[in-house]
Amino acid sequence: MGYKIVIVDDEAELLENLHFELSRLKPDWDIIICNMAYEAKMRVMKGDIDLLITDVAMPDMNGFELFSAVVDYNPDLPVIMMTGFGYDPDHNIVNSKQLGLQDVMFKPVDTDKLIAKIEKRLELN
């Protein structure tokens, strides 16, 4: 089944690598990449996205702010948060989990594990 998945991260190389790997392994998925959280938020607000993958730390909006906006818009949209930090000084992950975030991945992201998390979240919806 063709799912639309938005990935947002301010690291261009990570975005390109994830786009390449996911598109290669799951050619029926439509992988949309954004390098700014606001751009991802606007894409989600169009209403045709099946899952969002977001970084925690971005220059225009942090992962919690994006997650909070997405949950307000569509509480059923699955979200996976990524972080390169072992410590979350602003408590973005904790705050997001309090609003219902279920999946967090640490960078560097293992593509096979990411696919498994995506498929699990999409099967539940």
Model description:
- This protein has helices at 12-25, 37-45, 63-73, 92-98, 111-124; strands at residues 4-8, 30-34, 51-55, 79-83, 103-106.
- The protein is built from 5 helices and 5 strands.
- The mean pLDDT is 91.
- A 5-stranded parallel sheet has the order 2-1-3-4-5, sandwiched between helices.
- It has 125 residues and is of the alpha/beta class.
- β4 (79-83), α4 and β5 (103-106) form a beta-alpha-beta unit.
- It has one domain (4-124): Rossmann fold (3-Layer(aba) Sandwich).
- α2 packs parallel to α3 and α3 packs parallel to α4.
What descriptors fit this protein?
alpha/beta; 125 residues; 44% helix; Rossmann fold; globular; 19% strand; 5 helices; single chain; 5-stranded parallel beta sheet
What letter string, H or E per element, gives the SSE order?
EHEHEHEHEH
Instruction: Please tally the helical runs, counting DSSP H or I stretches of 4 or more residues.
Output: 5
Query: Which sequence of strands runs across the widest sheet?
Result: 2-1-3-4-5
Domain unit count = 1
- Kindly report how far apart the N and C termini lie: 13 Å
Radius of gyration: 13 Å
Category by helix and strand content: alpha/beta
The percent range for helix content is 40-55%
The CATH topology annotation reads as Rossmann fold
- The CATH class: Alpha Beta
As a percent range, the share of strand residues is 15-25%
Q: In CATH terms, what is the architecture? A: 3-Layer(aba) Sandwich
As residue ranges, the low-confidence spans are none
Mean pLDDT: 91
- Net shape: globular
Tell me about the largest β-sheet. Answer: 5 strands, parallel
